[in-house]
Design goal:
This protein is mainly beta and 258 residues long. 2% of the residues lie in helices and 42% in strands. The strands form four sheets. It has a five-stranded antiparallel sheet, with no helix packed on it. A four-stranded antiparallel sheet has the order 9-14-11-12, with no helix packed on it. A three-stranded antiparallel sheet has the order 5-2-7, with no helix packed on it. This is PA14 domain-containing protein. InterPro entries: Fibrocystin, PA14/GLEYA, PA14_dom.
């Protein structure tokens, strides 16, 4: 993963690349954006997108990695702090013909040229986060428990043919449906109340739903109140990246007359 979009793949579309930037050192940074067609680069003073400001833009178009065609392509020097997380966003509008989008930087001791590497980025999760557990987990514990209650009407549980657990997660989890373990990923066995994930999961994978077939556990559904419980696991209590976003999907296959 890097701060770069696919090239030459479509016409008449727009792109928004958004996420978080992690500066590796204290100091002054300068950013460049290149694109076809026009684009804008926005950076916040913190994690809040509401505090973003436009720092560079392409008024027309450039070749891939053509960082110096327009004066407006580069930002002023911006003071950033190591260990802090900053919201960053690139917008691009493509008409027809070739298309590209990339962002690079100059940072203390390093002159830019290649797109910003994935080790300094993480995906935007603002629209996914309902509960912020940083204060309860960071530096305290690598595990968290959550319960999601839902209700099925009498006999409704017998109507479903398929059951799927969809998970966005970083780094691991164990899932239970009405007290029965139904799925686990990147989790130790046996799992303890304060377990850590088996390994660090690539953060770019957390933005994509992983689908797990739970058809074998259809009988675990019950009329009345049911509980989906998730034991979320971070790879370390000192790791600031953590996400658990479950979706339980029950469906019935239907034959449509032709």
């Amino acid at each position: 993963m890097s701060f770069e979009a696919p090239t030459n793949w479509e016409d008449n579309y727009g792109t928004r690349m958004q996420g978080f930037l992690y500066p590796p050192a204290n100091g002054s940074y300068r950013f460049w954006i290149a694109s076809d067609d026009n684009s804008e680069l926005w950076l916040s003073t913190d994690v809040n997108p509401a505090n973003k400001s436009k720092i560079a833009y392409v008024p027309d178009w450039t070749e891939p990695y053509e960082w110096s065609k327009f004066v407006s392509q580069h930002s002023d020097w911006i003071a950033l702090a190591a260990g802090q997380k900053y919201y960053i966003e690139a917008l691009q509008k493509e008409g027809t013909g070739d298309d590209n989008l990339a962002v690079t930087w100059e940072r203390p001791g390093i002159v830019g040229g290649d797109p910003i590497e994935g080790q300094y980025l993480s995906p935007w999760t603002g629209s996914w986060v309902a509960t912020d557990v940083e204060g309860d987990m960071l530096g305290v514990n690598s595990s968290v428990w959550m319960r999601i209650e839902f209700v099925l009407e009498e006999g409704q549980s017998d109507l479903f043919d398929t059951l799927t657990l969809r998970m966005r997660y970083e780094d691991g989890f164990v899932a239970y449906l009405n007290g029965v373990e139904v799925a686990s990923c990147n989790a130790p066995s046996p799992v303890q109340w304060d377990s850590t994930a088996d390994s660090k999961r690539p953060i770019e994978n957390a933005s994509v739903f992983e689908e797990i077939n739970l058809n074998a556990f259809l009988g675990t559904l019950q009329s009345g109140k049911s509980v989906l419980a998730i034991h979320g696991l971070n790879d370390s209590k000192h790791d600031g990246d953590f996400l658990i976003l479950p979706e339980l999907v029950a469906a019935r296959n239907r034959v449509v007359p032709q």
